[in-house]
Design goal:
- The complex is a heterodimer of chains A (312) and B (390).
- By secondary structure, chain A is an all-alpha fold.
- Chain A has a single domain, classed as ABC transporter involved in vitamin B12 uptake, BtuC.
- Chain A is built from 13 helices and 2 strands.
- Chain A has a two-stranded antiparallel sheet with strand order 1-2.
- The radius of gyration of chain A is 19 Å and the shape is globular.
- Chain A starts with a helix and ends in a 15-residue tail after the last helix.
- Chain B has 390 residues and is of the alpha/beta class.
- Chain B folds into 2 domains: 191 residues, Rossmann fold (3-Layer(aba) Sandwich), CATH 3.40.50.2300; 129 residues, 3-Layer(aba) Sandwich (Rossmann fold).
- Chain B has a 7-stranded mixed β-sheet with strand order 7-6-8-9-10-14-15, with helices on both faces. A 5-stranded parallel β-sheet of chain B has the order 2-1-3-4-5, sandwiched between helices. In chain B, strands 11-12-13 form a 3-stranded antiparallel β-sheet, with helices on one face.
- In chain B, α2 packs parallel to α12.
- The longest helix of chain B has 20 residues.
- Chain B is elongated, with a radius of gyration of 23 Å.
- Chain B starts with a helix and ends with a strand.
- Classes of the chains: A mainly alpha (312), B alpha/beta (390).
- Chains A and B meet through α1, α2, α6, α7 and α10 of A and α1, β2, α3, α4 and α7 of B.
């Protein structure tokens, strides 16, 4: 157990995020937007890594959980703000984390709802079910008038700051790291390595899978809340299949089941998209080409110096 | 098995990576300052959907804006200074427009922002420009919410309530439709909004909505909805969608033997409509839009000729509005005599100029009150039917 030391790192990261946040007024808005976007991608990718990487399940529905979190938290800070604000003494810095947490929890419940019945499926089948879930969420959102339907939710207050994004990114990295390195968490790796062997050793594999799913969904929900309060406007089409694919690409590029690689890939790809802006029409071609080259050059993941334990 | 020490190192590196991302947020020398430097070129930012699902509209609008800037440059710029247009593509994706707006404001120091066709993405960038106090002009976002963002957000096109009302009047008076079926796109803010704004005045006039059915963008088969519509025997079908689906809907409706009039709004406006549906199927269809290249006015003729010379194609309404949005801005800069954001905003609020889409006068809500045109299709060609004054 190295928890005391890693908790120290977590505390340090939170302090750094807090200090930088205090000076964020001096940072130019564009840079801040890109940096916060990268931070949100870290939360998304690291949480998906728990499902796709460490537990070896293939989920294509991460944007769906993100949408659930985004809409839940945005509703709490817009439509219900008038009722909720007096309860917290009008302090938005209390309301925001409460809204984020609510978004995460509702997303986690969605994670149970999707995970429990479908995680008995394997591989491609699971991918299709989660893909379907993501699409269902999108279509449901498009048809609920109270949530703005296709018009989306606008006027979401910009509460997202450096502290919240990078603080939560650090927490996500810490939780996923601590979880898979705990005695209990070895079960995730066992499920990924060989499900039949894990089961014959007496592990409840479905429970491990659902746990990974719920934790992943929770953090995706948080990321959704951060996203909504960063952009100020959310729309169901922003959480479509392509968004899920974007996150999957980060995880694969970073290396499935890698801690550092996935964080680095999240930052790299977010910054890359912006840097390629100067190439105008060729932006998407270059981006796709770079992905192909990176995948050919480093199929094991960007920052994988050691081979991961071999899957059976 | 990896050693605990290795695991710790990974944790360390992960945190360093996060730290680096933070360290990268260097406070830039001129942060917090927006607006231009009052020397050097006047910079204008345009964000558009140049790729992705609404690319046909985005490209059209962008070409119009580009043509306007060519003209401004050819006539010696503005206020004796050069003008520069910076274009950014949001790929029709959600979230991108916010980043672009922030880039325009904090990096490019634009005096104004132009964009965009899709209301959803104008709604993203609007609050950013509003907060910075830099004016934004949307060429063709018709959703009323866009300019409700604040006093720095303008548009040079009419709004959906106006368009809905005029469609309703046209259906009621000219087409003599009494019982209507509405087929709208649940995935599009524009379609849902326009359907609603059509319904209210139509019902108020005494009309009956016999059936309301929905589809979703990128659907290909509409036979189920159209069969239901046929069973409800309306006199006309209102399809306030975008041209890709509208083309297929019209085609499939005619195949089912529905010969009644089909009509919609400016989302129909694209040459692809005829390619998709075919000229015969489009007989007895009508749509309202902002502009027709066959209108008989010198301004329109000059614009159409210049557009053809540059791009070798006939401009549509989005191109005309893209052109007018840039021209309205140029007018305002000339009138204000400065690029100071507050004075420029005031000059824009008082906009009253005649562009290629007719006289553009902004009301107190910063929306344009302007004429609309009704277009029909005859012999596989778009045909200008009538102008509707506000």
């Amino acid at each position: 157990m190295h928890f005391p030391k890693s908790q120290l790192w977590l505390a340090l990261a939170l302090v750094v995020a807090g200090v930088v946040s205090a000076f964020s007024g001096r940072i130019d808005a564009y840079f801040l937007d890109v940096a916060l976007g990268a931070g949100i991608n870290i939360v998304l990718a690291v949480s998906l890594n728990l499902i796709n990487g460490f537990t070896g399940q293939f989920s294509l529905g991460h944007a769906g959980f993100m949408a659930v979190g985004a809409y839940t938290s945005a509703m709490l800070t817009t439509t219900f703000a008038a009722k909720l604000l007096p309860l917290v003494g009008g302090q938005t810095w209390i309301l925001f984390p409460v809204a984020l947490l609510a978004g995460g929890l509702v997303a986690a419940v969605a994670g149970i709802a999707v995970g429990a019945p479908s995680l008995r499926l394997k591989g491609d089948y699971l991918a299709i079910v989660t893909l379907g879930f993501g699409e269902i969420i999108k279509v449901v959102l498009q048809n609920i008038d109270a949530l703005g339907a296709a018009r989306g939710l606008y006027g979401v207050p910009s509460y997202t700051t450096v502290f919240w994004v990078f603080g939560l990114a650090a927490v996500t990295v810490y939780v996923v790291w601590a979880l898979v390195n705990s005695t209990y968490g070895r079960g995730f790796l066992a499920v990924a390595d060989d499900e039949i062997a894990a089961e014959s050793m007496g592990l409840d594999t479905t429970r491990y899978k659902v746990t990974a799913f719920v934790v992943g969904a929770f953090f995706a929900g948080l990321a959704g809340g951060l996203y909504a309060h960063l952009k100020g406007y959310i729309n169901p089409t922003g959480f479509d299949f392509n968004k899920s694919i974007e996150i999957v690409v980060i995880v694969i590029l970073g290396g499935m089941g890698r801690h550092v690689g996935v964080v680095a890939a999240a930052i790299l790809l977010s910054v890359l998209m912006e840097q390629l802006r100067r190439f105008g029409d060729y932006r998407m071609i270059l981006y796709s080409l770079l992905l192909i080259v990176l995948m050919l050059a480093r199929p094991q993941g960007l920052f994988a110096w050691r081979a991961r334990r071999k899957a059976a | 098995m990896k050693s605990p020490a290795f695991a710790r190192r990974r944790q360390f590196i992960a945190l360093v990576a996060v730290g680096l991302a933070l360290a990268g947020c260097k406070p830039s020398a001129d942060s917090g300052k927006t607006g231009d430097s009052s020397t050097g070129p006047i910079v204008v930012g345009e964000f558009a959907s140049l790729h992705g699902s609404e690319a046909a509209f985005g490209q059209s609008s962008h070409k119009g804006t580009e043509l306007a800037f060519d003209k401004i440059k050819a006539t010696g710029g503005l206020l004796g200074r050069e003008v520069k247009l910076i274009v950014e593509d949001n790929q029709s994706k959600a979230g991108e427009s916010v980043t672009i707006a922030k880039k325009f404001l904090s990096r490019d120091h634009v005096v104004a922002v132009l964009g965009e066709v899709a209301s959803g993405r104008s709604l993203e960038a609007g609050p950013i420009c509003q907060a910075a106090g830099i004016p934004m002009i949307s060429p063709s976002s018709t959703n009323p919410k866009v300019t409700e963002v604040g006093d720095h957000v303008f548009r040079v096109c009419f709004t959906d309530p106006f368009q809905g009302k005029l469609l309703s009047d046209f259906a009621w008076k000219t087409l003599k439709v009494r019982k209507v079926a509405i087929l709208s796109d649940t995935a599009s803010a524009y379609s849902v909004g326009l359907a609603e704004f059509f319904k209210q005045p139509f019902v108020a006039a005494g009309g009956e909505v016999v059936l309301e059915v929905k589809y979703a963008s990128r659907d290909k088969d509409f036979k189920a909805q159209l069969t239901a519509i046929k069973a409800s025997s309306p006199d006309g079908i209102c399809v306030p969608g975008y041209y890709t689906e509208v083309g297929l809907i019209v085609k499939q409706a005619r195949e089912l033997g529905l010969t009644i009039p089909i009509f919609g709004g400016d989302g129909w406006e694209a040459p692809q409509l005829i390619e998709i549906a075919g000229g015969d199927a489009l007989k007895n269809t009508y749509y309202s839009t902002h502009f027709s290249p066959s209108q008989d006015s010198p301004a329109v003729k000059e614009f159409v000729a210049a557009f053809k010379a540059k791009y070798n194609e006939v401009p549509d309404a989005m191109a005309a509005l893209g052109y007018d949005s840039a021209m309205a801005l140029a007018e305002a800069i000339k009138k204000a005599g400065t690029t100071d954001p507050a004075k420029l905003t005031a000059a824009l609020a008082a906009t009253d100029f005649t562009g290629v889409t007719g006289r553009t006068k902004l009301d107190a809500q910063r929306n344009a009150t302007k004429p609309a045109v009704i277009i029909t299709v005859e012999n596989g060609q778009f045909k200008f039917l009538q102008t509707v004054e506000p």
